[in-house]
Each structure stands twice: as C-alpha cells, then as structure tokens.
C-alpha cells in the first residue's frame, strides 16, 4: 500500500501550522478529496476517508481494493466549516465520512435528499451559475458531465485566489477561465476524462497550475499520471502531481481583500 506524504498527526500538524502562514492552503485527501484553508476557515471537497466502498464491493466483480493508506480519520476534520460534494457517487458523498466530519453539506440541488440522508447534516442545494458564500469562501457551481444524477464542478474564490475543482466529468468546456489551479480527474473510465483530456481541460480553463486527482485510491480504477504529465508538457501547461496528504499554498501578490 502507498503511503501519503503526510498522514494522521503529521497531517493535522501541517494543517495547524498553515494557520499562521498567509494565503490559501490546499491538501489532497485522496481520490477527488481536498481540504481548503483560508484565514483559519476550512472547506472539504468530496472527502472519501473510510473503507465503505472496499467493504461494499468486496464480493463483486469490481472489488475496491485500496491503493493508498488513508490520510486522516474523518472525525479529526471536525473543525471543517462545510463539506462540498460534486455528486452523489460513493467516493464523493460517503456516508461514513460525512457523518464523522459532521459539518453542513453543500451539494447539487438534485442530490439534496440523498445528501441529507447520508450526512444527517444541514444540506444546501446549489445550481450552476448561482454563487453562494460559505465560511468566507465564494462558491460557484459550474457544469460537469458525468453519468448518474446531478453533478457539478466548483469554482471557489478565497481572497484573491480562484480554484477550480472539475468534479467527475467527461471532456467539456465549463466556461471557466483564469483560475489559479484546476483539479482534474485522470482515471479515464466510468465517466471521467483520462490524463491527456484532464490536462486539456486545465488548459481550456487557463489554469495557472493543473493538478491531477482521482487516481491511486482503488486498484480497479486508477491511472498513472504519466500521460497527464506528457500532455501538460506538450501544451506548455504548468502542472504539479501531488502525493496524498501534500499541501499546496498560494500567497497573494496584492493584499488579500
Ligand atoms: Zn468518482
């Protein structure tokens, strides 16, 4: 099993240390999950921090064998101000994880009932193009194309920074431009872009940095980031491949407003 760069106590110590550093901080939690910190407030996107799918699919044709050890137990993220979910698939709206975190949830309008059932928390339904404010973050749901129920991506503004999380999606132009970072899947199956398509999506939205996700979680549904990296190089698209539990930081050139 692969090891996160930071996990458990070491991961939480890094989250705590970031509080006294300027800017926006983002940690990859594995799969499409990220923790965002700005001015001491926290959002979690698409956290999957349990083994619920490994148990659920053990007796099936597609056992979900975990590839990377969990970054942190979800109950230790109780400081999160809110959880954002892009859609209701189990690796993006996990009951065990949501209940353990215990924070209010933001989810696509079409999944509100299910999100309430799974989280037991307050759920705010969102629609593409309607910006909401949560814990000092401005959150704009944007289109995503993924089989199943209502799915979205998110553009999250924190101070002067804008982060784009595509959610699970096949190739599309979400109409987003000029973001500091694009988090894009690269597994290339089950309704998701592959590495080169993910790189092109980041390039389309004019991301200053492309970061791949949705790999190294399950043995049956992963991909090497090599093809993503090769396409970024071909496009002249800056990129960074994170390890789980690793932090990215953006410090504003101008004062944060
Ligand atoms: Zn997924």
Architecture overview:
With 257 residues, the chain is of the alpha/beta class. 20% of the residues lie in helices and 25% in strands. Strands 6-5-4-3-2-1-13 form a seven-stranded mixed β-sheet, with helices on one face. Strands 7-8-9-10-11-12 form a six-stranded mixed β-sheet, with helices on one face. α3 (95-101) packs across α4 (112-119). The longest helix is centred in the first third of the chain and has 11 residues, at 8-18. The radius of gyration is 17 Å and the shape is globular. The protein binds zinc ion (ZN). Residues 32, 89, 91-92, 168, 214 line the site of zinc ion.
Can you give keywords for this protein?
single chain; 257 residues; alpha/beta; seven-stranded mixed β-sheet; six-stranded mixed β-sheet; 6 helices; globular; binds zinc ion
Strand order of the largest sheet: 6-5-4-3-2-1-13
Q: Ligands bound here?
A: zinc ion
Number of DSSP helical runs: 6
- What profile does the largest beta sheet have? 7 strands, mixed
| Series of H and E elements | HEEEHEHEHEEEEEEHEHE
**Whole-angstrom Rg:** 17 Å
Q: What gross morphology would you assign?
A: globular
Q: Please report which band the strand proportion falls in: under 5%, 5-15%, 15-25%, 25-35%, 35-45% or over 45%.
A: 15-25%
Report helical residue fraction.
Answer: 10-25%
Tell me the total number of β-strands.
13
Structural class: alpha/beta
Terminal CA distance: 43 Å
């Amino acid at each position: 099993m692969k090891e996160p760069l930071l996990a458990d106590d070491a991961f939480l110590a890094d989250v705590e240390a970031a509080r006294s550093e300027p800017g926006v901080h983002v940690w990859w939690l594995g799969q499409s999950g990220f923790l965002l910190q700005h001015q001491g407030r926290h959002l979690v996107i698409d956290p999957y921090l349990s083994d619920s799918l490994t148990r659920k699919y053990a007796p099936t044709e597609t056992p979900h064998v975990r590839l990377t050890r969990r970054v942190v137990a979800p109950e230790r993220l109780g400081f999160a101000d809110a959880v954002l979910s892009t859609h209701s698939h189990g690796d993006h709206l996990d009951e065990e994880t949501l209940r353990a975190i215990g924070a209010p949830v933001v989810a696509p309008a079409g999944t509100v009932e299910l999100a309430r059932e799974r989280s037991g928390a307050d759920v705010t339904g969102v629609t593409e193009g309607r910006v909401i404010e949560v814990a000092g973050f401005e959150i704009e749901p944007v289109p995503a194309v993924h089989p199943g129920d209502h799915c979205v991506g998110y553009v999250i503004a924190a101070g002067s920074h804008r982060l784009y999380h595509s959610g699970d999606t096949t190739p599309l132009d979400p109409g987003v431009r000029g973001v500091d970072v694009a988090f894009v899947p690269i597994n290339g199956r089950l309704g998701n872009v592959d590495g080169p398509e993910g790189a092109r999506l980041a390039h389309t939205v004019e991301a200053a940095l492309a970061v791949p996700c949705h790999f190294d979680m399950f043995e049956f549904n992963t991909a090497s980031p090599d093809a993503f990296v090769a396409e970024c190089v071909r496009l002249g698209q800056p990129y960074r491949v994170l390890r789980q539990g690793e932090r990215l930081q953006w410090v504003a050139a101008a004062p944060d407003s």
